[in-house]
Amino acid sequence: MTVPFVREEPRPPPPAVIERGWQVERAFVGIEIDFERSQLHGAVEYIIRPLRRDLKEIRLHSGQCKVITCQVNNFVSVSEVLSVKPKQKSVEELIKHEKIRLEDFNMQAQQLNEEAHGPNLCITIPFEIRSDLQKQFAGKNQPPPEDVEITIRVEYSTQPHASTGAIFPARENAEQMPYMYADGRFGFAQDWLPCFD
């Protein structure tokens, strides 16, 4: 008995993905662990496909991460942090977005992480890439081209407390290696790598 090949039509992205304007195609994470200092140094690279011609920025949850560099298609990108801080003035102003420079973010990330979602890293798409994106989208009603990709690379370091742990073998068992485990659930992954959703 042979089973006929059925080709599935591509599904449209979910509404939340359409709203943010981009979809992740692939993700790569490289982490170096400093067990003595309980610190992570890493780089995360997201290859995304734009869903809108007017895409100007990418936002990632960044928790306790100290951002070192941000690149968009090998262009150094201007990056800033949008923090979500509860205000006590009125119910209407309970959550207000503040723009903070990247240098200030590194000092405030630890303090802001104790709040609900922590800060968001806002990576600006460089003008050269935005102008190419405008040209590649044929018309406003056309679906985005499949071959258009943008590579976002963020290098960072962090000392996560709530979302990771390390196991050290006893000194008698020197042949066993220490290992680290991490919690990748929603709300926890942002403590050990810049991530989305």
Automatic annotation (TrEMBL):
Organism: Rhodosorus marinus
Domain of life: Eukaryota
Signal peptide: none
One GO term describing the cellular component: transcription factor TFIID complex
Annotated GO MF terms: chromatin binding; RNA polymerase II general transcription initiation factor activity; transcription cis-regulatory region binding
Protein name per Swiss-Prot or TrEMBL: Uncharacterized protein
InterPro entries reported in the protein's UniProt record: Aminopeptidase_N-like_N_sf, TAF2
UniProt feature coiled coil, ranges: none
UniProt record, GO biological process: transcription initiation at RNA polymerase II promoter
